[in-house]
Amino acid sequence: MTQATSSDEVRYQDEGKARRSLGRVLTHNLSAKIAATPMVVTVLVVFIGCTLWTIWYSFTDSRLLPTGDFVGFEQYERLFNTSRWNRSVSNLIWYGAFSLVLTLSLGFLLAVLLDQKVRFESAFRTIMLYPFALSFIVTGLVWQWIMNPTLGLQGTLRNMGWESFTFDWIAQSDMVIYALLIAGLWQGTGFVMVLMLAGLRSIDDDIWKAARVDGIPAWRTYLFIVLPMMRGVFVTAVVLVGAGIVRLYDLVVALTNGGPGIASEVPAKYVYDYMFTAGNIGQALAASTMMLVTVMIIIVPWAYLEFGGRSKKS
């Protein structure tokens, strides 16, 4: 009898401790939790809710207005049988791969040069960062004028005597993607440079002193010591640049409007045109769902390796 009573008391004590712990968890930073409630509701309703809405109506035959007529994978079959969509996907893959590699490489090299304590560093940094302050619409219009065959750089140099000079890439279907790449690099490289420079300035000076004492060349110090230490900066830069690549739209509209023909089409423009111009909501939502799936295929494995691997090691 005594043992049963003591066990009941222990159980009641444990339950009391559990309730008190739960109460402390619920009341801890209560004001912060109340303040965060609208944000949580917004995420659940706007982001998750609209994502589910998009996926559902991509399986319908919605035209001007959303309808509930389920048609299965008909919109997706039509999507992948459309040459315009296939061309837009290949353009984005090509542009994204080169833009990501060149933006990170050039941004890091420029940051290394600025890290040498060059004269007029602040002025040079401001000049390189200035294009990032402009919208992609402005960037596209600027480069559209520069590459205009009659009014831009080509026409100007030909009027000065260089009759054979040619720089009309926006009018050539096989070169227009390079025009987009140049405009994108012009705008985004300066921002990546500033990120890399901040990462370089955070490296302890003792690292450099030890490398010089050991006789390690500067390029090997950057490559095998500094770069691994800047992993977080590179991850941030990749996420920001990658997000800009996936939603590439306004630069294309301002610079080429997808032309000549469909030579510079991108998925975001395809979605916009079918949603608001062609009046085919189902097709537009199918395309946007494929963009979402592509991003998830990239993000989920990366997040697992980045965070899941760490938790297992710890």
Provide a descriptive summary of the structure in words.
With 314 residues, the protein is mainly α. The protein has two domains: 42 residues; 240 residues, MetI-like fold (Orthogonal Bundle), CATH 1.10.3720. Helices cover 75% and strands 0% of the residues. The protein is built from 14 helices and no strands. Helix 3 packs across helix 14 and helix 5 crosses helix 8. The chain starts with a helix and ends with a helix.
Task: Name the descriptors.
314 residues; mainly alpha; MetI-like fold; 2 domains; 75% helix
Summarize the structure.
The chain crosses the membrane at residues 34-56, 92-114, 126-146, 175-200, 221-246, 284-305. This protein has 314 residues and is mainly alpha-helical. It has helices at 2-27, 30-57, 74-80, 83-114, 121-133, 136-146, 153-159, 176-201, 205-213, 218-229, 231-246, 250-255, 267-277, 281-313.
